[in-house]
Amino acid sequence: MSKVYTGIQIGNYSVKLTQVTDDKIDKISVTPLPENLVKDGRILSIDAISELIKGIVKDNQIKCKNAAVVLSSDVSFARRTTMPYMPIEQLKINLPYEFHDYIQNEKESYNYDYAVIGKFENEKSEVESLDLLIAAARNDILDEYTGMLKKAGLKFKLAIPEPLTYRNLLRTYQKNNENHPDEYCIVDLGHAATRMHMFNGTIYDTTRVIEYGGAALDALIADYMDVDIHLASNYKISNMYDVQSLDVCHDLYNRIAVELLRALNFYHYNNPESTLNDIYFCGGLVKIKPLMEIIQSTLDANIHNVAELIPGYDAEKYDSEKSEAEIATAAIAITLQ
Question: What is the pTM for the complete model shown?
Answer without folding.
Answer: 0.91
